[in-house]
Amino acid sequence: MPVKNRFAELQDEITTWRRDIHENPEILFETHRTSALVADKLKEFGCDEIVTGIGRTGVVGVIKGKTDTKGKVIGLRADMDALPILEATGLDYASKTPGAMHACGHDGHTAMLLGAAKYLAETRNFDGTAVVIFQPAEEGGGGGKEMCDDGMMDRWNIQEVYGMHNWPGGPVGAFSIRPGAFFAATDQFDVTFEGRGGHAAKPHETIDTTVMASQAVIALQTVASRNADPVEQIVVSVTSFETSSKAFNVIPQSVQIKGTVRTMDPDIRDLAEKRVQEICAGVAATFGGQAEVKYMRGYPVMVNSDEQTEFAAKVAADVSGKCEDAPLVMGGEDFAYMLEERPGAYILVGNGDTAPVHHPEYNFSDDAIPAGCSWWAEIIEQRMPAA
Predict the structure, then answer these.
(1) Mean pLDDT along residues 74-102
(2) SS3 breakdown of the chain: % helix, strand, coil, rounded to 5?
(3) DSSP state of 67
(4) What phi and psi, each to the nearest 5 degrees, are found at residue 147?
(5) 81 has catalytic annotation
(6) Entry pTM
(7) Which one of the listed residues 26, 79, 81, 187 is annotated catalytic?
(8) Pairwise CA distance, residues 349 & 268, whole Å
């Protein structure tokens, strides 16, 4: 298909952008260099409007088609931020920033959307307006929400929005998607157990927070196994356990545990929050202690719209020959905020046999670039065909 041929021609150039971004990772909203690079490229491509500072460091580019008979506007979104991970790939273009790494492929997402923007600005073979959205702080910062809160959707009259993520383990350039709930809601809890510390040789004089918190860790597993309907998706994971004392002969005064809850249903999400609070308070009271529970709601469930998902799958099949059904994903994705404001769809593109995302040896596959760019460009050209 012509789009794929053009992106084959552009692949080396797009790869150069991707590797430059990879070499210079930036965390959360601190994507100043990346945002400037994106804005410079969009200007070079001849975009009709370029706005920076949306959602703090987000960048928006507007590309008008040859005609605009129906006033249709479609948004395409890529994330730009890296992770606080020490890279262990040994690549020539490995991170030059200690403790920061593009371990989730956002460098590839940004480069592919830049490639699509270059093509769309060159050809403008569509009837309407394409809005390319480059978002900071997907990795826990809620940059997507901040861009929406800044009025992005209404400012440009965006009517549909589409996003993409690479998927290690999937064949390079192959696509998969599912309608409805796709990525999970991601909540966090931080619980401090207070008791009475003392000498380890005299446990009867203490209220032992280590035993108290240990019981709570086990009891929290019953939220999924005994409180939630077995057919519902829920994960409760305690990921940190820290005592106030590190000595061999001291029973600590306090213990702090942290963890995450992942759910796909609003009612199960409410149930989980209620039970985490009740279990921790109840276990602490049983031992004569107290529990301070902080429960923080994170990204909502990411829900693909039915119509747009069907369309996105058709485009993917046109680009790569077929589009598979994707599994439910218990990871979070703040594209959910954009899909709460507008109908749209989020798709996965295969990254090959690589390390998983969020791993120090992960790397985005540049071989996925032509397929990813083609999908974005075809979304625009097929959804808004030239008049």
Answers:
(1) 98
(2) 40, 30, 35
(3) B
(4) -65, -40
(5) yes
(6) 0.95
(7) 81
(8) 30
